[in-house]
Design a protein that fits this description.
The chain is of the alpha/beta class. Helix content is 46%, strand content 14%. The strands form 5 sheets. It has a 6-stranded parallel sheet with strand order 11-12-8-7-13-14, sandwiched between helices. Strands 4-3-5-6-16 form a 5-stranded mixed sheet, with helices on both faces. This is Aldehyde dehydrogenase.
């Protein structure tokens, strides 16, 4: 089944119909139409999958997809255009440029926590770059997967962008096939398996993974506002967000204030019983429910801690004085549990972060610009947001992706287009001016070698319009000045000769 889908998609790509920009634009408009027309159905599916509020779905997923589509439609002609590059003396008369071209057939393996955004945003880039794509949504978000399979063929080319549903066996079968790129969003554990399978065909991958994203709250920051923003980022989507703050680092002197501010914010956001709040979600399934509860074993929550297995409900939970080497601090929580780890100062926080795997996101709440700069310079992460959480994800101009264990490659906006394109080096020259090439041909001698060496060592020349105009102007001015200087010298020489003549005449 999967092999047949792949073969059909490959044949559709080889037909060449994804090459024209007009076709890509038409497909992007169709995808935009699907999001607009089917928003209610999409929201209903997410309500069934993870109890997502109908108001959160547009904010957390659909608007982001629409923005990506609009940007791609607006900028596609620029993104896909040849990109002139600098030349040297040997290529000064040649046409030299980088041409983005489609990779081929891309496999997109989506995630269940944001099943529309994390599946369709890569698809937007794949379409814009002129690729075909086999879309494999997560089987865990079952209602969304079935709806995507039903909707997508009604709006976009069903041969170029088929949807394959199923579990691990179907995904493994797809990974055995020779795709031109694999785009996976999910856990680091599965990411390693995807990379291993892709390596068999030397297929490039983009892995959007996760990890433990730290959140440092400085004692001199506005703790109340910091906790308000952290509370939203941690507990939205029931904590099932790859860039949610995984844990808080703060000094012991403000730990009690942090706990109390989070408690008050939760009361404001979800009421006295979050279980009854229409804005609070549920854990995706029983397995993940049990996994999160097992991480909490041995701790007494200072906030929350209640659970209901029948609904896969876990209350927003805060744990304080969590030991740095506990199991809770060894794996990504991916749920509504927020541990607080105390550090002595910012130096200790930086060391704590650097001793662990590179996180997907880093959050810093601080009012001191020098301290903020230091935190950014002395740590590393996929992305960083200062005095807020997760907002760097919303900007298409910023690359989104991890580093090290938190991911390989980045996307969003033009970054997705570039990630799913081959940047082809192109040099076009004529068969004229063969004398220029003589220095590189045998038989070689010292004179020819010197000429070739000088040409190859020449600085790169920017042939962009503005630079070229200034270069021409400078050349003309230089020639004019040289001519003027020569005329002055000739005049001076002429006057000198005349003086000698008349002096000789009178003498």
């Amino acid at each position: 089944m999967e092999r047949q889908v792949f073969q059909r998609t490959r044949e559709a790509f080889l037909s060449g119909r994804t090459r024209p920009l007009e076709f890509r634009l038409q497909q992007l408009h169709a995808l935009q139409k699907m999001i607009t027309e089917k928003e209610t159905e999409i929201s209903t599916a997410l309500k069934q999958d993870i109890n997502r509020s109908q108001y959160d779905t547009p904010l957390l997923e659909l608007i982001g997809i629409e923005n990506e589509i609009k940007l791609a439609i607006e900028k596609l002609s620029d993104w896909a255009a040849p990109r002139p590059v600098e030349k040297n003396l040997l290529t000064i008369s040649d046409e030299v440029y980088v041409q983005p071209e489609p990779l081929g057939v891309v496999l997109i393996i989506g995630a269940w926590n944001y099943p529309w955004s994390l599946t369709l945003q890569p698809l937007v880039g794949a379409i814009a770059a002129g690729n075909a794509a086999v879309v494999k949504p997560s089987e865990l978000s079952e209602c969304s997967s079935l709806l995507l399979r039903a909707l997508l063929p009604r709006y976009v080319d069903k041969d170029l962008y088929p949807v394959v549903i199923g579990g691990a066996s179907e995904t493994q079968e797809l990974l055995r096939l020779r795709f031109d790129h694999v785009f996976y969003t999910g856990s680091s554990r599965v990411g390693k398996l995807v990379m291993e399978a892709a390596a068999h065909h030397l297929t490039p991958v983009t892995l959007e993974l996760g990890g433990k994203s730290p959140c440092y709250i400085d004692k001199n920051s506005d703790v109340r506002i910091a906790c308000r923003r952290v509370t939203w980022g941690k507990f939205v989507n029931c904590g099932q967000t790859c860039i949610a703050p995984d844990y808080i680092l703060c000094e012991p002197c403000i730990q009690g204030q942090v706990v109390e501010c989070i408690r008050q914010t939760l009361l404001e956001f979800y009421g006295a019983d979050p279980k009854c709040s229409p804005d609070y979600g549920r854990i995706i399934n029983q397995r993940h429910f049990n996994r999160i509860l097992s991480l909490m074993e041995g701790y007494t929550p200072v906030v929350g801690g209640q659970s209901d297995s029948s609904q896969c409900y876990i209350a927003p939970t805060v744990l304080k004085d969590v030991p740095p080497h506990s199991r809770l601090m060894q794996e990504e929580i991916f749920g509504p549990v927020l541990p607080i780890v105390t550090v002595s100062d910012m130096d200790d926080a930086i060391s704590f972060i650097n001793e662990r795997e590179k996180p997907l996101a880093l959050y810093v709440f601080c009012s001191d610009k020098k301290a903020i700069k230091r935190m950014i310079e002395e740590t590393t992460s996929g992305g960083v947001t200062v005095n807020d959480v997760m907002m760097h994800y919303t900007l298409s101009s910023l690359p989104f992706g991890g580093v090290g264990q938190s991911g390989v490659g980045c996307y969003h906006g033009k970054h997705t287009f570039d990630r799913l394109s081959h940047h082809r080096a192109c040099l076009v020259r004529s068969l004229n001016m063969e004398s220029v090439n003589l220095a590189r041909y045998p038989p070689q001698d010292r004179r020819r070698a010197r000429r070739a060496r000088m040409a190859l060592r020449s600085p790169l020349i920017d042939m962009s319009k503005r630079t070229l105009i200034w270069a021409v102007v400078a050349t003309i001015l230089g020639v004019c000045l040289s001519i003027a200087l020569l005329v002055i010298l000739l005049i001076a020489a002429g006057l000198n000769c005349t003086c000698w003549y008349w002096r000789g005449f009178y003498n």
